[in-house]
Amino acid sequence: MDDIHREYGVTLRYTQDYQKRLSIIRKVLVQEKVMFEGRNVSDRIVSIDLHYVRSIVRGKEPKSVEFGAKVNNIQIDGISFI
């Protein structure tokens, strides 16, 4: 894929969605290589389509790992901001 981009990248037109997806796939590849070496990866991507979803280790009996989006909640004067 990189060879195609190097050779024909100037003449090809890529959509923004394609470029974003390709960068996510490249980041996943780097993370997988690091994990293969036996090291831990913080903020590991578990879904290419939902790259902002992270695994959450809860330690519950039926399922020890859950998946969800990271959210910050701030409350100011009784109003919640997400």
Quick rundown:
With 82 residues, the chain is of the alpha+beta class.
Strand content: 15-25%
**Strand count, sense and closure of the main sheet?**
2 strands, antiparallel
Protein structure class = alpha+beta
Number of strands: 4
Number of helices: 2
- From the spread of the alpha carbons, the general shape counts as flat
- Quick check: average pLDDT? 80
First-to-last CA distance: 39 Å
Rg over CA atoms: 18 Å
Strand order of the largest sheet: 1-2
Poorly predicted residue ranges: none
Into which percent range does the helicity of residues fall?
25-40%
Instruction: List the domain count as a whole number.
Output: 1
Helix and strand sequence: HHEEEE
Annotate the secondary structure layout.
Blueprint: H1 2-8, H2 16-36, E1 53-57, E2 65-69, E3 74-76, E4 79-81
Antiparallel strand pairs: 1-2, 3-4
Q: What would your notes on this structure say?
A:
By secondary structure, the protein is of the alpha+beta class. The protein has one domain (2-81). Helix content is 34%, strand content 20%. It contains 2 helices and 4 strands, in the order H-H-E-E-E-E. It has helices at 2-8, 16-36; strands spanning 53-57, 65-69, 74-76, 79-81. The chain has a two-stranded antiparallel sheet with strand order 1-2. A two-stranded antiparallel ribbon has the order 3-4. The mean pLDDT is 80.
